[in-house]
Amino acid sequence: GIQVEQSPPDLILQEGANSTLRCNFSDSVNNLQWFHQNPWGQLINLFYIPSGTKQNGRLSATTVATERYSLLYISSSQTTDSGVYFCAVGPSSNFGNEKLTFGTGTRLTIIP
Amino acid sequence: DAGVTQSPTHLIKTRGQHVTLRCSPISGHKSVSWYQQVLGQGPQFIFQYYEKEERGRGNFPDRFSARQFPNYSSELNVNALLLGDSALYLCASSSPLGIGTDTQYFGPGTRLTVL
Hints:
The complex is a heterodimer of chains A (112) and B (115). With 112 residues, chain A is mainly β. Chain A has one domain (4-111): Sandwich (Immunoglobulin-like), CATH 2.60.40.10. Chain A contains no helices and eleven strands. In chain A, a hairpin with a 4-residue loop joins strand 7 (59-64) and strand 8. Chain A is globular. Chain B has one domain (5-114): Immunoglobulins (Immunoglobulin-like), CATH 2.60.40.10. In chain B, 0% of the residues lie in helices and 50% in strands. Chains A and B meet through strand 4, strand 5, strand 9 and strand 10 of A and strand 4, strand 5, strand 9 and strand 10 of B.
């Protein structure tokens, strides 16, 4: 099956700093989503981005499908950005099936 | 509109027991998927149901089963519980197409502890 790798595994930043999280995947995809998991376990949708670039406030994401990677940018970090960020993909070979394969996540800690 | 809802929020069972978890999708969504998240790992796909039919199954034993009802809500059943079944169980729903090319929205999860 498809492999998803996220880096770095852990990131500790001062409030106000910028960060870049990376997601590499091993096969072509028809679905790629970024999630933020809060301390209570809720997975919050950030982006649906199988290709291209999107921005939402301080967050933006870019997926280069031909090179099989996606980047999540967080600017001017706030303490509320702390948590685990997951990349999840649905390979194009699964067309008709909604299985998402998740990476192992990046744990982001923002220090005041 | 309400998001994906799951019940119960927490559950404690003992080894060998059976458990039923419930999920209601976002209104208008016909696809429901179930995931298991063990502490420290990313969620793992268990099942997807669309229009009451199984569309996909992950690498889980036959002790795990699910079904979808005419109103598109779903149940996940786990028999003969093992300590290793302790996890956060997440339900996700997506748009009427359910073919894997749309955003999936997750519920708050059910935290199962097996003693």
